[in-house]
UniProtKB/TrEMBL annotation:
Function according to Swiss-Prot or TrEMBL: Involved in unsaturated fatty acids biosynthesis. Catalyzes the dehydration of short chain beta-hydroxyacyl-ACPs and long chain saturated and unsaturated beta-hydroxyacyl-ACPs.
Source organism of the structure: Methylomusa anaerophila
Enzyme class: lyase
Keywords: Cytoplasm, Lipid A biosynthesis, Lipid biosynthesis, Lipid metabolism, Lyase
CC annotations in GO: cytoplasm; membrane
Protein known as: 3-hydroxyacyl-[acyl-carrier-protein] dehydratase FabZ
The organism's taxonomic lineage, starting at the top: Bacteria, Bacillati, Bacillota, Negativicutes, Selenomonadales
Amino acid sequence: MILTAAEIQDILPHRYPFLLVDRIVELEPMKRAVGIKCVTVNEQFFQGHFPGRPVMPGVLLLEAMAQVGGIAMLYPEEYRGKIALFAGMDRVKFRKQVTPGDQITLVAEIIKLRGLIGKVWAESFVEGQIVAEAEFLFALSSS
């Protein structure tokens, strides 16, 4: 299943400049999602991170990964309108910098869901090389 940016906005509450997923290219609701983020030099955060040597902030890379996990969790109709809030992060590793011109492939897999609490394992790749990985704990909340 493929989702466009407009369809992603039907699921996630995030909007510019904080929506960090351009497209979903694979989706198995409540199991797994694969998203794409095209990084351009026009990203607002590059103005200050870092002038003359732009690098995507790691925290925004984690947020993009989490948004893909959120799409997998929030796609079913019974979860629409809820917000996936961070409850924790574990096993976070940054392996490579992300810079303008990179296309990030974001892979998120739901490894546990109990009630309104979920655990997601996510990885991000540029040109097939892993750039970051993390385990996220989410709490689903009504908006």
